[in-house]
UniProtKB/TrEMBL annotation:
Keywords: Flavoprotein, FMN, Membrane, Oxidoreductase, Phosphoprotein, Translocase, Transmembrane, Transmembrane helix, Transport. Pfam families: NQR2_RnfD_RnfE. NCBIfam families: rnfD. This is Na+-transporting NADH:ubiquinone oxidoreductase subunit B. The keyword Translocase applies. The keyword Oxidoreductase applies. Coiled coil: none annotated. InterPro entries: NqrB/RnfD, RnfD_bac. The chain crosses the membrane at residues 14-32, 67-98, 177-196, 203-222, 228-248, 260-289. Signal peptide: none annotated. Its EC number is 1.6.5.-. It comes from Alkaliphilus hydrothermalis.
Amino acid sequence: MEIKTKDFFMKQNHMRKILISLIPIILGAIYFFGWRTLVLMSVVTSFGILTEYAFKRKRNQPVSEAVIVTSILFTLTLPVSIPFWVAIVGIIFGVIFATEVFGGYGFNVFNPALVARTFLYICFPQYITVAWNAPSAGFPGGFASYITPAIETITQATPLKQTVPISQLFWGNVSGSMGETSAFLIMIAAIILLVTKAIDWQLLLSPLVGFIGMSAVSILIAPAKAPSIQYGLLSGAFLMLAVFFVTDGSTAPKTVEGKWIYGILIGTITVIIRVFGIFVGGAMFAVLIMNTFVPIMDEGIKYLKEQQRKQVSL
């Protein structure tokens, strides 16, 4: 529930729960890739807040705490070495064209962090798909460095097709976007969100069902192209998308049936794009595709239910 105050920020308890769940992932990102993670996050968040403020001040309204969550999530989907100006362009684009043009938070059709990331993926692929850094190991890890050494041999968005042990994908000591490498930390965040009732379990489970089902089918159809189910789940940022983006209440369906259809199709489309398409980042496209159909999906389900009630009453 959003409560307007005279303060600069609008108090949003739901967003604060998400911020708490992100703490382990943020600390993990610093450990794996260095303190530039926090510096980049601070810069992106500042510009995200300023962008929303430019719109809110005209209506004499407080800035939503949702923009802080948007900025942090967006930053965690980026490589640690991305230039500051590229990240700034991304967050400004996301806040304006995915939130403010729809009337602000709560009215947006698309998740702004995901729109910002997709914008950079398409317009500045050289900074998103080739500039990776090696993960640190041991103690104190990245806490003792500004940024870890660069890797110049990887030419894809995430380590989806690399020969990486499952254990590394689980713990997170693999190159990739700052907050997407550790399945373990993402699972901790998911537990926090579920315990605090910050996300809907149906929206969390349904994409996993769709992903696992379609992965099994793709292994039968195209075994040479399809990775194993466990490898696919732990790589390519799918868990991050499932926990934080599929469960976004402002862009997800409100009906129970819609939530299951929405999530299952996201998981299914993710696998189809990954295995049979040309983009490794299938999950982010899958979420945005399904965001488009959420309004008509909910209205269609409500209409069908109403028709069923009328038939029963006859």
